[in-house]
Amino acid sequence: MKIIDGKKVASDIRAELKVITEKLISDGKKVPGLAAILVGDNPASQVYVNSKAKACGEIGFKSVIEKLDSNISQTALIDKIKFYNENDDYHGILVQLPLPKHIDESEIINSISVNKDVDGFHPVSVGNLVIGNKTFAPCTPAGIQELLKRYSIEIKGKHVVVVGRSNIVGKPIANMLLQKKENANSIVTVCHSAGDVKKFTKQADILIAAIGVPNFIKADMVSEGVVIIDVGINRIEDSSSAKGYKIVGDVDYEDVSPKVSFITPVPGGVGPMTIAMLLKNTLLAYQKLTN
Ligand code: GUN
Fold it and tell me: What range defines the domain where residue 57 resides?
């Protein structure tokens, strides 16, 4: 059993990006900038956005966090996005999800300039991804693909089973690994809670769990030698921890890990990769906008 060390890979990527930023600075150029918009006070969202801004700072990117009140109007939020669409210091814009109920998420995503859509959530980015055009790939799926690549895990012709069909992970990773391209070309099945999940997960060479249910995948649901990519970040009560909770994945690690060839831990697997790929997309946006 081999543990896929996402923390290490993410740190390598950040170091690579830092070198590139230092060169921009020594050449007297502008640095890549990321505007992160956070609406309301969801504690997990606050943690994510702060980590994203901190990661920018560490490699020399400019960043700003726009903290907006949970009862902001949709129009005022769109105006804020338009401000960053037009602002030359910020090349990437992200609106942390989920948004409060009174705001139409898709209207908000539609208002982000496609050229600054570093989350890859805009319908134009999604369409380009599906047909295999060059575009911003959503950060978590891009992180998964990068981990499989850096660990030389063969995926061509392999059966990848994705559990979960979200717009952020399930749908895009299925589309990315299906492409007739390098680091893809897999046979992909997407399954979800409306059917017999175990019937499909048993057939997986590579299992990607992105359902948001703590410890959902058990040993009897997978085959010997499977590669496990656990996307879950679930808070569960833990009275032994000072915080009162701990973070677990969608895969029951203790139960499943004896059967696997590779597995991503939680924390320290896919999570850190999401931020590394966001930085990479921000650099990409910068390069496209400034060249
Ligand atoms: N909420 C959960 N994951 C993400 C993400 O990758 N980007 C944004 N903007 N919101 C999220």
Answer: 29-113
Convert the pLDDT of each residue in 232-291 to its tens digit.
Answer: 999 999 999 999 999 999 999 999 999 999 999 999 999 999 999 999 999 999 999 998
Compute, in angstroms, the gap from residue 151 CA to the centroid of ligand 1.
25
Tokens, residue 72: 């902001």
Query: Which one of the listed residues 5, 119, 205, 230 is annotated catalytic?
Result: 119
Q: What is the domain count for the chain?
A: 2
| 145 in the same domain as 264 | yes
Same domain as 105, residue 144: no
> 54-58: long-range contacts (C-beta < 8 A, 24 or more apart)?
55/14, 55/275, 55/276, 55/278, 55/279, 56/279, 56/282, 58/14, 58/18
- Sheet (strand 33-39) strand order: 62-68, 33-39, 92-95
Q: Is the pTM of this model over 0.70?
A: yes
Which CATH number do you get for residue 259? 3.40.50.720
Dig out the tokens for 34 from the structure: 């990321």
176 and 243 within one domain: yes
Q: Are residues 101 and 184 in the same domain?
A: no
For ligand 1, the distance from its centroid to the CA atom of residue 34, given in whole angstroms, is 14
